[in-house]
Specification:
The protein has about 110 residues and is of the alpha+beta class. It is built from three helices and three strands; from the N terminus they run αββααβ.
């Protein structure tokens, strides 16, 4: 291939590469902006209740109110626990069908 033919091929390839990179940069900017715009400004809703057990020991029960987009994994991270622990504390809750406003035990 001579120089002229190489330039004919290289120019469109360079153009497509530049457009692709530009689109990725713009997309990343939109996603970054969307992430910050949707970040809630309120604190996580957790409640603590102290109960008395048979041995007169006090145990703190904490609940979490499920919000949009929550999963057991994201709740576990927010509350400093594990998914296995949440499943143990909430045997009647299906982790694949959490409902907004539903209260689950986290401790």
């Amino acid at each position: 291939m001579n120089r002229r033919n190489a330039a004919r091929v290289a120019a469109p390839v360079a153009f497509l590469a530049a457009v692709t990179i530009g689109a990725l940069v713009v997309r990343a900017g939109f996603e970054h902006g969307k992430h910050h715009a949707s970040t809630p400004t309120t604190t996580v809703t957790s409640k603590t209740k102290t109960t008395r057990t048979h041995g007169h020991k006090r145990r703190r029960l904490r609940t979490y109110t499920v919000r949009s987009g929550d999963t057991f994994a994201s709740i576990a991270i927010k509350e400093g626990t594990t998914v296995a622990r949440l499943e143990h504390l909430n045997p009647g809750v299906d982790p694949t069908t959490l409902h907004i406003g539903e209260k689950i035990r986290v401790q």
